[in-house]
Amino acid sequence: QSALTQPASVSGSPGQSITISCTETSSDVGSYKLVSWYQVHPGKAPKLMIYEGSKRPSGVSNRFSGSNSGNTASLTISGLQAEDEADYYCCSYTRSSTYVFGTGTKVTVL
Amino acid sequence: QVTLRESGPALVKPTQTLTLTCTFSGFSLSTSGMCVSWIRQPPGKALEWLARIDWDDDKYYSTSLKTRLTISKDTSKNQVVLTMTNMDPVDTGTYYCARMGADCYSGENWFDPWGQGTLVTVSS
Predict the structure, then answer these.
(1) In a mutagenesis test of the B interface, which of A38, A50, A51, A99 is the best target, namely the one with the most B β-carbons within 10 Å?
(2) Is A45 close to B113, i.e. CB distance below 8 A?
(3) Cβ(A71)–Cβ(A24) under 8 Å?
(4) Closest-CA residue of chain A to B66
């Protein structure tokens, strides 16, 4: 059972902004500021989109941003594009020296 | 450029042992701070972290699967091997290896880049 809960689905029209939440449900999860986010397209390798809560790797569009508030981390996609349609997962290190992924969110571009 | 590629059997029978190999290039696991993880994704389900091995041969396992998993490395071949015993149909899924994005002196880290994954089906 995941210690990170995400909404099952989020949708938006092209050009709009959407936000995906990732809420800690277990005290075993470590510092929430170090959450990473991954984009998964069917049949393709997962891609790192955000690390350390809000840092964007080289090559990732600046339309993707990360933040956190309390026990919830968030991924915001602004200027939504058709290519953003994918599954998104948050991930955090735990106090048990393991890693836990969120439940996953399917993003649909209407 | 860092690349990783997973290989192994596409089909295993229940109760068998699965052996997967991650062959990588662009870095060395003998370099201080380097580490590699295995992650899987059952069809239609979430990603699940399985195990991590560090440059100094420290190993970490999923709490729920640690009795079934063994991770090892062959530095000379640039390979990391994962074995999972007593395979069950619920273990069907795509298995990925990934390098950790930062040095592994501390656990807080991320996965980057990932291999393309290898689909493993468990069926008799």
Answers:
(1) A99
(2) yes
(3) yes
(4) A98
pLDDT band with cut points at 50, 70 and 90 for residue A102: very high
- Shortest CA gap B111–chain A (Å): 7
Angle of CA points B104, B70, B64, to nearest 5°:
85
Contact yes or no for A108/A55 (Cβ under 8 A): no
At A32 the pLDDT is: 61
Cβ–Cβ gap B111/A36 under 8 Å: yes
CA of A79 to nearest chain B CA: how many angstroms apart? 25
Statement: residue B74 has pLDDT above 70:
yes
User: Are the C-beta atoms of A103 and B46 separated by less than 8 Å?
Assistant: yes
User: CB contact, 8 Å: B110 with chain A?
Assistant: yes
Report CA dihedral (A102, A108, B4, B9) to the nearest 10 degrees. Answer: 80
Across the interface, do A2 and B110 touch by the CB < 8 Å criterion? no
Q: How far apart (Å, rounded) are the C-alpha atoms in residues A48 and B43? A: 20
Q: Which of A86, A91, A59 is nearest to A73 (CA)?
A: A91
Q: Which of A45, A103, A98, A90 is nearest to B71 (CA)?
A: A98
Copy the structure tokens of residue A64.
């993707």
Contact B108 A31 (CB under 8 A): yes
Q: Which pLDDT score is estimated for B110? A: 94
pLDDT digits (tens, 9 = 90+) for A47-86: 999 999 999 999 999 999 999 988 899 999 999 999 999 9
